[in-house]
Amino acid sequence: MGRLFLVNLDGKVYSCKHCQTHLALCEEIVSKSFHCRHGKAYLFNNVVNVTMGLKEDRMMMTGMHTVSDIFCVGCGSIVGWKYEAAHEKSQKYKEGKFILERYMVAGPDGSQYLANLDSHVGGSDADDA
């Protein structure tokens, strides 16, 4: 395995809750109105220090999407997913963007979001916006 180079971000940063690896800047947030199986999730234009899993089609609350899970390069934890393709015309704005599950990341102030145990168990991406 090669040497690992991490991108360190300047500013208000969301990071992996397990290893504090930087993942995204606050100004990259597109929407805070998404939900996943553990509760809240945020849509970002760009994230760093992640690797992507295999592409797969998933039926979500807003329709069928082709997504890739994203994993923290520091510790390997799954932190969200990337929208590769949206099959519904109204959802095309998500393509190429990333979801970070709030439960899996620490906020810019170091805060952590607790999982919502009453949340829907299946994959979701409900956008309230």
TrEMBL record:
- On whether Metal-binding is a keyword of this UniProt record, the answer is yes
What PROSITE patterns does UniProt report for this protein, alphabetically?
A: YIPPEE
Q: Which UniProt keywords apply?
A: Metal-binding, Zinc
Alphabetically, the GO molecular function entries are: metal ion binding
Q: Name one Pfam family in it.
A: Yippee-Mis18
| Domain annotation Yippee: ranges | 12-109
Which family is it part of? Belongs to the yippee family.
What is this protein's record name?
Protein yippee-like
- InterPro entries documented for this protein: Yippee, Yippee/Mis18/Cereblon, Yippee_fam
